[in-house]
Amino acid sequence: MEDRTQQEQASPAVRKRVRDSFDLQGLMSHLGARITHIGPGRVHIALPARPEVTQQRGYVHAGATSAIADSAGGYAALTLFDEESDVLTVEYKINLLAPAAGDHLEAIGTVLKSGRTLTVCGLEVHGVQADGTRKLVANGQQTLIRVDRPTA
Amino acid sequence: MEDRTQQEQASPAVRKRVRDSFDLQGLMSHLGARITHIGPGRVHIALPARPEVTQQRGYVHAGATSAIADSAGGYAALTLFDEESDVLTVEYKINLLAPAAGDHLEAIGTVLKSGRTLTVCGLEVHGVQADGTRKLVANGQQTLIRVDRPTA
Amino acid sequence: MEDRTQQEQASPAVRKRVRDSFDLQGLMSHLGARITHIGPGRVHIALPARPEVTQQRGYVHAGATSAIADSAGGYAALTLFDEESDVLTVEYKINLLAPAAGDHLEAIGTVLKSGRTLTVCGLEVHGVQADGTRKLVANGQQTLIRVDRPTA
Amino acid sequence: MEDRTQQEQASPAVRKRVRDSFDLQGLMSHLGARITHIGPGRVHIALPARPEVTQQRGYVHAGATSAIADSAGGYAALTLFDEESDVLTVEYKINLLAPAAGDHLEAIGTVLKSGRTLTVCGLEVHGVQADGTRKLVANGQQTLIRVDRPTA
């Protein structure tokens, strides 16, 4: 079932909208993060483990782990909005369950409830080894608000 | 009262311990963050607003805002530990109250409860203009756990 | 300063609006809770410690502690709304800092940010002994949404 | 899969330990809550919708919704502990996704990560109609700590 969900792609227009917005996030490119899946109500973001994203023990910093989780949830919400809408994070809560180690992290944002004004997402971050082994390293929950897209 | 608190410094040994650990956090230097105050149970971290830390609208990304808040809280907890102890974030929750704009952000972590195993911190992030005007842009709460310091 | 804030009362119309709504909350009277202060952006609720509100060790249950904190925050938000508005809790997070013991608990909800749609409150719960000694037993943060008041 | 999980029962000794502790929670019986399932790492609690548990609009109060979610998560954690251990809630966060209506609510606590000291649970609360129709009304995440069981 996991595989089917991952294969379900959002429409080309939605995927373009998400990628265009992601490309405007200076933080994501500065961290080295990239979007790896855009499905309806579900977005994945990968972050290679590099010295630039570590905490004092060499694991990925909770702040970097949270940053990709926050963006994954935000874009998951955006996939269900019309093109006149943008999304802002209201708040989120995240538990760091295990040292964030591996070849890279994968954050998965999934819409739990999409309302007219507010959207609630579940957030997961997995540590992925070079051989594909995965471990849940963080789990969270996020509230987002729909706002009008700024006009160019 | 705010000023007196800000002027109260932790001991030189504690300040050194905090700075040494901070210098090991690759993420903090990659973001351009620096520690600006180390008091007993209270740490400030400043983050200049740069294109490298933005979200899609040019404000500071919630992930960067959270990252300095998380580190400020973690080091606030560490100031109250003995030198054999290190600290890990268990979880945190943060509300983004206003667009994170300004010359720089200032995160303030303050210990609310310091227990034998767990510490709870309050987190604040202010947007600071070039003229010194301040606005609260994020507010949060964090749980941390004391762990043994890894031996060199 | 604490005392001045506690003495600052909301207008009679606002206090009536809050009390009328509180009286409709079956849970609050079933728990034995009562409102003890209604100021602008700040509401206090007291809960006597009774066997009806305990957990397995005889302390006040986290659920009862949270219930009065949630109501205190909700009514703190309501004091700043016009009379056409009602309030609903979007989410909250609470840390249980110490066993909730004492003669009674006092929950304090304080508005941190009052926006057009969303309000964010800080939540505190104190355990109060018969001699007036107080201890912070829980600390939290809450997001609320303004909605139209149902017409009678 | 949902059904198989629900049918998997914890051992009789664990079920007895959970029920004995639940029976000591004055709040649960005062609210009218009862445990409906005890599986390994998963506990269900049902709460009939009654005037005694409502907020100002007649829905179940966020505080009552949270109380059964908190207990469900706490007992889910307890099912994985040895008999010398008790559990305390460190913190939780809960989103109220929809008006909590129905014949009764069902809270489900599920262990996400069981560590030596800390356990993290996912919390769900469903509104259940008399005809069995279910709707997710709240979703949360909880951190718990293992403590020694008090000696009698």
Automatic annotation (TrEMBL), chains A, B, C, D:
GO molecular function: fatty acyl-CoA hydrolase activity
Domain of life the protein comes from: Bacteria
Xref: Pfam families: 4HBT
Keywords: Hydrolase
Boundaries of every Thioesterase domain copy: 58-126
Protein family: Belongs to the thioesterase PaaI family.
Protein known as: Thioesterase
